[in-house]
Design a protein that fits this description.
Elements: E1 4-5, E2 12-14, E3 19-22, H1 29-34, H2 43-57, E4 62-65, H3 78-92, E5 97-101, H4 109-116, E6 121-123, E7 125-128, E8 131-134, E9 149-152, E10 157-159, E11 162-163, E12 165-169, H5 174-177, E13 186-189, E14 200-201, H6 202-208, H7 210-213, E15 223-225
Helix pairs in contact: 2-3
Length: 234
């Protein structure tokens, strides 16, 4: 499979497309903590630097962001606008093409990017070769179910408090739900990128994600991996 886990990071890499994959940025999350008197110094800059370091080590031309770009569900306030502007300017400086699969926190996202004057491609689903990308808060389209790989985020999955990757195969109800499917299609669930987010323990992910809850993809047959790529035997 042409999808790599970037060692030690919640970042995927598709080599033949020179494309990075991340999910659940929730930029502005630190502002909620600040309102409660809790300050995380330069967390946004640290997140940006993590990506910039990967850009410098790999020939990255594109980045797929799997939704929940911002913490605000509707319109961001002024401070969140500034965070978003600085973060995406840092990506643009590296001449990276930006693609975003809209998540449940991404209301008015097109207007936001127009305001901060950042050029991005935004859609509910994004297609790239054998891959389709979406946030994961809804079920895939018919077209998405014909690809080789569906890549999602949304769950913030953790095992014993540590972020994890999940891979699995088609579930028992997929044929009932869709007119036609690729029976060999694989699902990749991406860890959350923002370290300030709460994780959802592995045993709860099956009830949380629509694709698992409806058995479109099998939660029972999943394989779980650490950020370093080691399979977890649980």
């Amino acid at each position: 499979m042409n999808f790599e886990f970037v060692n030690g990071l919640p970042v995927g890499y598709i080599k033949n497309s020179s494309c990075l994959v991340i999910g659940d940025l929730h930029l502005g999350k630190e502002l909620k903590f600040e309102n409660k008197g809790i300050t995380f110094v330069n967390i946004n800059e640290k997140i940006s630097k993590t990506l910039t370091d990967v850009f410098s080590k790999r020939k990255v031309k594109k980045i797929m962001i799997l939704g929940d770009v911002k913490e605000s569900i509707m319109y961001p306030d002024r401070n969140e606008y500034l965070l978003l502007k600085r973060f995406f300017e840092s990506i643009q400086e590296n001449k990276i093409e930006i693609f975003i699969a809209k998540g449940n926190h991404d209301g008015h996202l097109e207007e936001v990017f127009k305001q901060i004057k950042i050029n991005v491609t935004i859609n509910k689903e994004l297609f790239l070769g054998d891959f389709v990308f979406m946030h994961g808060n809804a079920l895939p389209s018919q077209e998405a179910m014909l690809k080789k790989y569906l890549v999602v985020a949304h769950a913030h999955a953790v095992y014993n408090g540590e972020s994890v990757w999940i891979k699995t195969s088609i579930g028992k109800n997929a044929k009932k739900a869709y007119k036609k499917i690729n029976e060999k299609e694989k699902l990749i669930l991406v860890p959350h990128f923002n370290p300030l987010l709460n994780g959802l323990e592995l045993e709860k992910v099956g009830d949380f994600m629509p694709i698992f809850r409806n058995n479109i993809f099998s939660f029972e047959n999943k394989k779980v991996f650490t950020l370093s790529g080691k399979e977890i035997k649980y």
